[in-house]
Design goal:
The complex is a heterodimer of chains A (408) and B (282). Chain A is α/β, with parallel strands linked by helices and 408 residues long. Chain A has 15 helices and 8 strands. Chain A has a 6-stranded parallel β-sheet, sandwiched between helices. A two-stranded antiparallel ribbon of chain A has the order 5-6. Chain A is globular, with a radius of gyration of 29 Å. In chain B, strands 1-2-4-3-8 form a 5-stranded mixed β-sheet. In chain B, helix 8 links the parallel strand 6 and strand 7. Chain B is globular and about 60 Å long. The chains are: A alpha/beta (408), B alpha/beta (282). Chains A and B meet through strand 2, helix 5, helix 6, helix 12 and helix 15 of A and helix 2, helix 3, helix 4, helix 9 and helix 10 of B.
Chain lengths: 408, 282
Amino acid sequence: MGADVMPKDLDIDSATLKEIYRQMSRIHEVDKAIQAGLSSGKFQFTYWPMTGQEAIPASIAPLITSEDYMVTIYRGIHDQVAKGVPLKGLFAEALGRENGVNKGKGGSPHISDPASGSMLTTAIVGAGTPIANGLALASKMRGSKAVTIVNFGDGATSIGAVHEAMNLAGVWKLPVIFLCQNNQMGEYTTIPEYTASKDFASRAAGYGFKGVKLDGNDPVAFHNGMKSVIDEVRAGNGPIFVEAVTMRLGLHAGVGFTNHLSKEDLAAAKAAWPVPCTRALLLERGICTEEELAGIDSAAKAEVQEAVAFALESAITGTDEMLLDVYGDPRSCPNGASARSARQKRRTPAKPARWPCSRRCRTRRNWRCNSMTRCSSSVRTSASPPVASSNASRACRPNGANASARHQ
Amino acid sequence: MQTKWGERIRPTPIAEQAIIGAATGAALVGMRPVAEIMFCDFVGVCLDQIMNHAAKQRYMSGGATTVPMTIRTIAGGGIGGFGAQHSQSTEATLLHYPGLKIVYPSTPTEAKGLLLSCIFDEDPCIQFESMMLTYATREEVPLGDYRIPLGVAKVKREGSDVSLITYGWQVMHCLAAAEELAKEGISAEVLDLRTLMPLDYDRILTSVEKTGRALVVHAATEFCGLGAEIASTINEAMFHKLKAPASRFGAAYAPIAYSKTIETAQIPHAGSIAARVRELVK
């Protein structure tokens, strides 16, 4: 069906919904491949599954380009996939390989891919929000129309950095979208256990900007809601807070379904899982045939399989990378080339290092001697602090003995 | 400045995480922001943004992104009357986070030259500015694009008996101590590190090679301070050339006291530095 066809009673054109499903299918195949790899022992890394939250980035993807910035969190592989991070580089990164998007030095919780606009992934809850403001500030000062979307979970709404960031974004009217993926669980703690707030969207009013609550499991409603949000922020009207209500089907970390829901609640949550639901919707409304959907799914699966094969073939990042990328110039590292060569240059190679001997080291100033015998009452003894007289001053011994004397 | 430069100079909420985060984000996409943390004691409220994000982003992204931002911060010690939360020296804490570059000028000219180098550097830089020096020194600084390269120490006084390796406002105290020692026939060289990371080991070792003795002096707590690190390196690198073990002298292991008498005594000053040197050259 053509892009301009609007299915009856469905407020979205067919091509867009199909594209959203295609992204969801890709995310789902990535999720499945990671869980299978971890279960079989073929992969070894920490995974914070995003199962159940696929519709959120998939519905946003058609509304943004690589010029728009994204910041996300350790539970953010779905965001990366939909933003356009290449899957080969993504898998290689998660596996700590040379060909990873970040040379295997960031890993799954720290993906950055500026080419697709995925600028930073943090493993510190809420810490991406102040940084997103900076990306948005740069866009605003440069007169670009780019928006910045910063993803975080409902748990992050409790942390101070999010408050500071929302306050600053409000007063500076930054083109940033605070996208709270409310998956009902802050790690292992449910919402009523950690806040008395009735919802999160209403908090935005306290900072002087709009907050909206959207169904993050309904790709049509969420896509349309996000379209107005993005348009408004792109127009320069300041930030918007979006509470995307969804459900985390997986554990906080690891593989398999959550064990924090009752059997009935888990069954209900699975029934509302956007991946099968959207697939069923496309079929039911006659937007796609089963054949077309199978084609989308198998293409996603093939893309993922190819990426996994590529990642496994790539070499594990080696120690030659250890001191690279600490600074632009590796010689800036004190334990790097410069300091080592300086030490080697000055060390007398013929003589082995010797410990001072007891013969002449009566005081720490008179410590040099020629004996190879290791000192029994060494420099360290003679240089050690006199015992402080009171318990109170004894507690401060790290500063050394003559500390008190020295500082007079 | 705001009148002249408009929105490039931005008033902020009192929110250090928001300030450092905004600078980090802007730097990620090629801006060169200068963020101000009023006192270096306040790095505590934004340490996550500095140590987990700005410092690590180049490494975590495998060089795909960089954070060319500069943080300016005041070290308030040495004047008295500020209390424990506005007087400490936090440079050693920050030196523990690979990825940060740290400068600590001791003159207005160097403050300008190092600041410009920080701004145009590709890595996140932190400039410590001593409040005591801000009040105690006054000089004309070069106009225009004047830069002092990072990682280059400078001999501030030549000497032959002992190297006083120092930085920031302790340079002033070391120079005064050297003056006092000269009267007793002890010739002290004063090496101003100027940049704490990257550290100029070449000039440190060259100076100690000449004098055979070294004392690293700083206002930060002596225990686990930069002085301990430098002294260890000197001892490892030139054990057999030393006339005495390289040592370090920093503040006593206590928060900075409000009492001026205690503060003066707990941080190295000309008199106590000279006394330590006398022990070394005995």
